[in-house]
Design brief:
There is one protein chain. The protein has one domain (about 5-85). It has 3 helices and 2 strands; from the N terminus they run ααββα. The relative contact order is 0.17. By secondary structure, the chain is mainly α.
Length: about 90
C-alpha cells in the first residue's frame, strides 16, 4: 500500500462526525485513480456486502489490514495532537 492511503485515513478520522451517504462516498471514490479496489458495506437489510477488483482473497485481506493500520495511525495522531493541545 502506498502512502496515498494515509491522507485518506486522516480525513476519515477527522471527519467521522459528518453524515455521508453511501452514494456520495462512492461518487467521491470514483474520482480517484485506483490500481485495485475493495468495497465493503452493509446492505439495506443488514447483510454484509464485499466485492473487489482483486481476484485473490489474500490481496483483499491485505488491503483491509493496510487500511486498518492507516486508520489506527490516523487515530493515534489525532489523539496525540489533542493531548498536546491540552498539555
Amino acid at each position: 500500500m502506498s502512502e496515498q492511503a494515509q491522507p485518506n485515513a486522516d480525513e476519515l478520522i477527522a471527519d467521522r462526525k459528518a453524515e455521508k451517504t453511501a452514494r456520495r462516498v462512492l461518487e467521491v471514490a470514483l474520482q480517484q485513480k485506483f490500481e485495485a479496489v475493495a468495497v465493503l458495506g452493509f446492505t439495506a437489510d443488514g447483510g454484509i456486502y464485499v466485492t473487489a477488483s482483486c481476484s485473490h482473497g489474500g490481496d483483499v485481506l491485505w488491503l483491509m489490514e493496510a487500511a486498518k493500520m492507516a486508520l489506527l495511525e490516523a487515530a493515534k495522531k489525532e489523539t496525540t495532537n489533542a493531548v498536546e493541545r491540552k498539555g
